[in-house]
Design goal:
Blueprint: E1 14-17, H1 25-31, E2 39-42, H2 54-59, E3 64-66, H3 69-79, H4 81-117, H5 123-159, H6 165-179, E4 183-186, H7 191-200, H8 203-207, E5 239-242, H9 244-249, E6 252-255, E7 268-272, E8 280-284, H10 286-289, H11 295-305, E9 309-313, E10 318-320, E11 332-334, E12 340-342, H12 343-349
Parallel strand pairs: 1-5, 2-3, 2-4, 4-5, 8-9
Antiparallel strand pairs: 1-10, 6-7, 11-12
Region (Disordered): 350-370
């Protein structure tokens, strides 16, 4: 006989789902004891299709309200042209920063490729050189996140969107709608647009207690590289999220697509997320986006994310985090050796030093370390 679900408000958690092409939302809602509860829907990642939410509303039980963040954001830009122009400049600079950061990552990939093509006289030396390349990539990742945070913090300090009439009115409207909800559902779509809308309308503090301030309005917290250095989040209501929605809730958003033809053949950090998790990198649809047969490539992705763990959000996957925003023991994650394992086992397997990288020739240039 299945155990009864806990009351939804007793201990609110974040629940990550896999892609919803074959929807499992109704099953998850029932399992979590949320059937009949009022859901706030965040579909800003869908952009101009934001209000095309009838099916989602039905899946959540029909008692829903769409927070309408994307539409509200368009209203803000129309009402405040100065802020709209400043935000456009911010996004333009971010795009250039992303492009230049990728050049560095691609050069690191090329260095790794050349090291692998080297005929080893001492394999240990080659392994150490490859680990140096991974360290360089980790440094590039961290510096990029820090610089994007500085860019965003400067925008908030200089233009003070939180004190402008259109934003204040929008935040009041969103805050009142969230307060009337018993749970939140965040869908996928364009993660950059979703993050921009959630920051403008201050969704971080709306979803969690003041112990977790909006990272853009308290940028000092982002400097911590170890999840244990940050206070645990205190959710105010349960949150379901998938795709870009899951990525947005974590501390760091990583874009990845191993099978791209024109895109960079290397995973890239986009920016920090809302930071409502601890030690988590969300990897939606990994079987579509990652070459799951290539352990060396997966191992590099996993090592770049440390001390966070990349959680695999496949079809039919449901992962409910702990009360302090961490992965449960049985969550499927990428191990540092590129093998899929559980979160608990990955902690047990973690060694004081980085695990060795496999050595040997690889294919054409432009690939991530393999």
């Amino acid at each position: 006989m299945p155990a009864e679900a806990e009351p939804p408000d007793a201990d609110p958690r974040i629940t990550f789902l896999g892609p919803q092409r074959t929807p499992r939302v109704p099953h998850v809602v029932r399992h979590l004891g949320l059937r009949g509860r009022r859901f706030g829907m965040i579909t800003a990642g869908w952009r101009d299709r934001e209000t095309d939410d009838a099916l989602l509303s039905d899946l959540l039980g029909g008692n829903t309200v769409n927070l309408g963040l994307w539409g509200l954001m368009q209203q803000v830009w129309e009402a405040d042209p100065e802020l709209a122009a400043a935000d456009h400049r911010r996004r333009t600079v971010h795009t250039e920063m992303q492009e230049l950061y990728l050049i560095g990552l691609e050069q690191a990939n090329e260095a790794a490729r050349r090291i692998r093509l080297h005929e080893p006289r001492d394999p240990r030396v080659v392994k150490e050189s490859l680990m140096d390349v991974v360290d360089i990539m980790r440094t590039l990742d961290q510096r990029h996140v820090s610089r994007v945070d500085e860019l965003n913090a400067d925008f908030y300090e200089r233009y003070q969107p939180q004190h402008r009439d259109a934003v204040v009115a929008g935040r009041f409207r969103v805050g009142r709608a969230v307060a009337d909800c018993e749970a939140i559902a965040i869908t996928g779509g364009h993660v950059g647009v979703l993050m921009g809308a959630m920051h403008v309308f201050n969704l971080g503090p709306a979803l969690a207690s003041p112990a977790v301030p909006d990272p853009l309005e308290d940028a000092g917290l982002r400097g911590a590289t170890d999840p244990d250095d940050l206070p645990p989040p205190r959710l105010l209501r349960p949150v379901l999220a998938w795709g870009a929605g899951a990525m947005a809730l974590t501390e760091r958003i990583v874009l990845f697509y191993d099978h791209a033809v024109t895109s960079p053949g290397v995973s890239e950090v986009l920016m920090g997320g809302l930071g409502l998790t601890r030690g988590v990198v969300a990897l939606p649809s990994p079987r579509e986006r990652l070459d799951m047969r290539d352990r060396r490539r997966l191992g590099v992705l996993a090592r770049r994310a440390l001390p966070r763990r990349g959680v695999l959000l496949d079809q039919r996957t449901t992962v409910t985090l702990t009360a302090d925003g961490r992965l449960p023991d049985d969550a499927r994650v990428l191990g540092s050796d590129g093998i899929v394992t559980t979160y608990r086992q990955s902690l047990l397997d973690e060694a004081p030093t980085e695990p060795p990288l496999a050595v040997g020739p690889t294919g054409a240039g432009g690939e991530e370390v393999r």
